[in-house]
Amino acid sequence: MYTTWxxxxxxxxxxxxxxxxxxxxxxxxxxxxxxxxxxxxxxxxGCYFQGDLISTHAYDEExxxxxxxxxxxxxxxxxxxxxxxxxxxxxxxxRARNLYKQLK
Length: 104
Known about the structure:
By secondary structure, the protein is mainly alpha-helical. Helix content is 50%, strand content 8%. It has helices at 2-10, 16-20, 22-27, 35-38, 53-66, 83-91, 99-103; strands at 70-73, 95-98. The longest helix has 14 residues, at 53-66.
């Protein structure tokens, strides 16, 4: 599995992110990812792995709260506790888009 990621990513950008998170990629199969996502690994530059689910939800909610122009996600859905906030932000003019569905 990791070699699949390495082969694909080697073609497209430095392996800094994948090397730093090698254990994660060893345990996850890249073939189940949408091809549009796998083909854009350069977008991961500057990212970091957040393995704690609760912290991830809190971080996502804070990002949504601070967003003024747009909010894009690659998640299949947002946490239910963030839905009222998302609705409020969208009503106020925030552009929201789910990239996951486009990458499939």
